[in-house]
Amino acid sequence: MARTLFVTLHSKAALIFLLGIVGIIFSSLLVTRYFFLFGINHLEDIEITRANQQAKAVIQRVVDNQVEYAVDWAYWDDTYRLLTNGNTQYASRNLEADTLISLGLSMMGFADLDGRVVEARVLNNDDEREFIQRIYQSAAIREHISQSLPDDALTPLSGLLEIDNRLWVISLNPIRDSSGTAPAVGWMVWGQALTGRFPSAYENILTGDNSLLEGAILKQIETSEHIVRTDTKLTRYTPLYDLNNQIIATLKTTEQRRYYQKSRQVFRYLIMTMLAITSLISVLVFILYRRKIAKQFISFERDISALLGDGPLPHKRKDTFTHITEQIKALAHASSKTERQLKETLSRFDALYHSQHLGMIILMDDQIIDVNQALLDLLGYEREQITSLSIRELCRNDESTLARLTSLYHQSSRDVSHFETALRCYKGNTLPCAIEAVRLDDGENSSLMLSVKDISQQKQQAELIETLSHYDTLSGLLNRPSTTKALNAALANQTGVFALYFIATRLREIYEIYGHHAYDSMVKHIADTLKGQFVGATIGRLSENEFIVFTDKSNERDLEAHACLALKASDNHIALTDAEFDIGLKGALIGPHLQFQHFETLVHCGFYAIEQARTGSKYRVEIVDEHIAQAAQETLVINRNLVSALKNNEFTAYFQPIVNATSNQVIGFEALARWHHPSLGLVSPGVFVPLAEKHKLIIELDEVVLEKACAFLQQLQQHWRKKSQHRLTIHVNLSSPHFGARRLVDNLKRLINRYQLAPGQLVLEVTESILLGADKETIKRMHALKALGVQLALDDFGTGYSSFSSLCNFPLDIVKLDKSYMSEIETNDKAKTLVRSIINMAQELGMTTVAEGVETASQLRIVNVWRVDEIQGFYFFKPMSAEQALNTFGENEGS
Fold first, then answer.
1. What's the pLDDT at 476?
2. What is the DSSP string of 865-893?
């Protein structure tokens, strides 16, 4: 009987051992799966949130871009005149469907200060004014335009609005003139339909599957931000608010749960594999256990049998298991206290060493009683050192952290608290950490378990991102957006801001010749120089070669002195490179008395002052006065109005007669561009022609003058034929870009046919820069022009880079002597010799010679002696308008 009992005992022990192994393996798998899926869920939440916020940011960017682009139209003089004078041609010129489409808009409207619609344009809508009026009558816009605010406090308004069950991006701007100084005269509203356009128009930049939930469907879903998770998809809902701060739509972002599906499949295969392996191991262990451990049980059986057989029988018969059970119970009763303490210790150790990547701290009454090795490695302490500290010392008496920990002791529930704090390291420095705190209870005492994660790298990355968003990476100075914001704020506060504008005129040349290493070195040198000279001031880099310094804590004399030192110090960098070159650093000082209101106008004034400065000391700083500031403001206005001036036909042509040197009779005219600016009056060609070239508008300007010149010649020629059989000529200047334009020949054909010009009547004056290179294309183009019956004249000969051989290499008809020679021929023998040689050579080549700038009788006598063919200058006539020329040389002229 006893023999059978013990055989059963060791067999059962083997089975229990195997079941324990299997249970541990599968429990570990299930726990690992739980935490792995928890991490997957957290990662998916981060990704869906990022995709949702990206889509929301795209919508906001659409709103911001519309507001930014609308400013130019709201501050356009045409728009201003629409509200003040009622410009009847405004809609036909500017509110065509193509214009709205090019701006990315669906509608545009203009109203007076009371919200009454003056002009409106809505795509695909017949009742345009009523549609725009409804926008102005919406609650948010009506409240905005009806505010009782000073004129300078009127600001734009932008956001989302629902109209006719469609979602619209709406922007509202006050309308002023281009200078921004006149009071607002009305409101301009821009709008583009977001419904139907989002998200299809932005699929290439969006990462998730996005859609807008509008209208009745909003009542069927939860309107707060939330995430809905299924086995296959993850969806995040974010509410969007309109101008009234009411929920207008919900942004829905959906992504496939790829990671979740793959992880489930991986764990399925893992469990099947572990099941097969565990079964095999279990069989082997069971066989080995019975063969090895069974011998010990047989020995134990023999000993117990001898004990029971040799010893006295008990009063009440008990079997061996009952006896052993009683002994074990007695032992368990005697060691119950030790067992509870052991359980508590095991629980703490299990919590401390559960994670190998997180530092762990056990607190009791704010005293550190135990930590794991990860925390010791993290902070650099020995175990004895850190367990002698309180949490107050480790946190450097951070009251916020201590208050959080104290509240955990008194909570009824075992909630987990998350927060950030800085822990003191052994070397004295602090380490930013993320803390997760939870309370542990053992029935008698309460303790806290803190998990500690090092977030110093995340903090450094955040600081780096912050630095990159506000500072220029090469120079270490503020970048342009941050500089603009800071300077505009300083100007708005009117605290007496001095500004120093610097420009390194040769940086681009240095980059092209010596490469980016020399360029980077120069930029850093300029930045270090400015930092050293202007301690405490705000310094920014505006572009590749522009810098600005501004402060309200200095005076003009000190700033000028430091600026001169900065200009001198900029040359010291030459010794640090293998090559010698000049940075070309120049500066301008703008004082607070000029009362600039905006960054752009101040910077433009500094640039203009340097550009207009006369040659002087290399290290001299230009001081901007009221005259320079006014001139700079005018050039800024001209820059802004140049395009609209071409559209509004503000450019005209004046005509200076050209006379025959022998008969003193008028034989032709030169057309000269003129601009009558609405506010600045007559603008010099020396100002607007370079600006037109800079803004790539010179071809349009040339075509305007060419058209007016041909029309003038046709009108004048009708009266001229009654007095003379000689045909008049018209000279028109042709710029280099226009000479190379593809449409030049076709346009000339059109003008010649339209205005019935005879061969030789139209003369195009080209500059010497066109002749540089003497390539085949240039000569081919010149022959094509001559084939139309157009004469070619070389303007301002001798002032550029061409040589006398240019007259031989090109099919020219006329040579015009620059007026600078005329002022020299009376006193300068070399000038006389040069002019005489040019005239003789041109006549030998069969070319007509024209002397420009003849202003005195003495000059006239000299050029007549040299047999110049034609004369142009103030001695005979000044440039005149077309009306004056017609009155002088038309039907009212004497014989």
1. 87
2. HTT-SEEESTTT---B-HHHHHHHHSTTS
Per-residue pLDDT at 5:
42
Length of the chain: 895
Query: What distance in Å separates the CA atoms of residue 700 and residue 677, rounded to the nearest whole number?
Result: 17
Which amino acid is present at 705? V
Instruction: Catalogue the long-range contacts made by 882-890 (C-beta closer than 8 Å, 24 or more residues apart).
Output: 882/652, 882/653, 882/654, 882/655, 882/708, 882/712, 882/715, 885/655, 885/657, 885/669, 885/712, 885/716, 886/715, 886/716, 886/719, 889/657, 889/666, 889/716, 889/719, 889/720, 890/716, 890/719, 890/720
Q: CA of 97: how far to CAs of 71, 91, 276, in Å?
A: 20, 10, 73
Q: What are phi and psi of 155, to 5 degrees?
A: -125, 160
Residue 741 CB: number of other CB atoms within 10 A? 18
Tokens 């052993």 identify what position? 324
CA distance 491 to 498: 10
**Quick check: helix, strand or coil at residue 811?**
coil
How far, in Å, CA of 698 to CA of 390, rounded? 78
SS3 content of the chain, % helix, strand, coil (to 5): 50, 20, 30
Record the tokens describing residue 489, joined without a space: 């704020």
C-beta of residue 516 within 8 angstroms of C-beta of residue 465: no
pTM of the model: 0.47
Enter the tokens of residue 532.
């050293």
Q: Are 745 and 784 in contact (CB under 8 A)?
A: yes
For residue 312, with 0-12 CB atoms within 10 Å meaning exposed, 13-18 middle and 19 or more buried, which class applies? exposed
**Which amino acid type is present at position 386?**
I
C-alpha separations of 120 from 73, 109, 175, 452 in Å: 14, 4, 15, 62
Rounded to 5 degrees, φ, ψ at 874 are -65, -20
**In this predicted structure, what is the pLDDT of residue 203?**
80
Give the Cα separation of 472 and 861 in Å (integer).
Answer: 65
691 and 639 Cβ atoms separated by less than 8 Å: yes
> Of the candidates 655, 657, 684, 659, which has an alpha carbon nearest to the alpha carbon of residue 672?
655
**Over 90: is that where the pLDDT of 518 sits?**
no
- The dihedrals phi and psi of 251, each to the nearest 5 degrees, come to -85, 120
Phi first, then psi: give them for residue 171, nearest 5 degrees.
Answer: -130, 135
Nearest-5° angle of CA 678, CA 682, CA 684? 130
Q: How many Å apart are CA 63 and CA 160, to the nearest integer? A: 8
Structure tokens at 682: 């007559």
Other beta carbons within 10 angstroms of residue 16's beta carbon come to: 9
Task: Report which of 63, 122, 54, 119 is spatially closest to residue 243, judged by C-alpha positions.
Answer: 63
Strand partners, 503: 546, 586
Tokens of 494: 């009117």
pLDDT digits (tens, 9 = 90+) for 186-224: 999 999 988 888 888 788 888 888 888 887 676 667 778
Beginning with the edge strand found earlier in the chain, give each strand of the sheet holding 498-504 in spatial order: 538-541, 546-551, 498-504, 585-590, 622-623
Q: What is the pLDDT of residues 53-96, one digit of tens each?
A: 988 888 888 888 888 888 888 888 888 888 888 877 888 888 88
Mean pLDDT of 472-490: 88
Q: Are 644 and 657 in contact (CB under 8 A)?
A: no
Q: What does DSSP assign to residue 195?
A: B
Kind and range of the H or E run holding 833: helix 829-844
Helices assigned H by DSSP within 411-472: 456-470
Q: CA angle, 891 as apex, 886 and 895 as ends, to 5°?
A: 110
Among the listed residues 677, 695, 544, 676, the one whose alpha carbon sits nearest the alpha carbon of residue 178? 677
Q: Are 500 and 549 in contact, with CB atoms under 8 Å apart?
A: yes
Q: Which two tokens stand for residue 486?
A: 């800071």
| pLDDT above 90: residue 554 | no
Identify the three-state secondary structure at position 542: coil
Q: Are 311 and 409 in contact (CB under 8 A)?
A: no
Could you tell me the strand order of the sheet in which 226-229 lies?
209-213, 247-256, 233-241, 226-229
Using 50, 70 and 90 to split pLDDT, how confident is the model at 4? very low
What torsion, rounded to 10 degrees, do the Cα atoms 636, 604, 174, 81 define? 0
* Residues 47, 50: Cα–Cα separation, whole Å: 5
Q: Helical H runs in 223-319?
A: 258-310
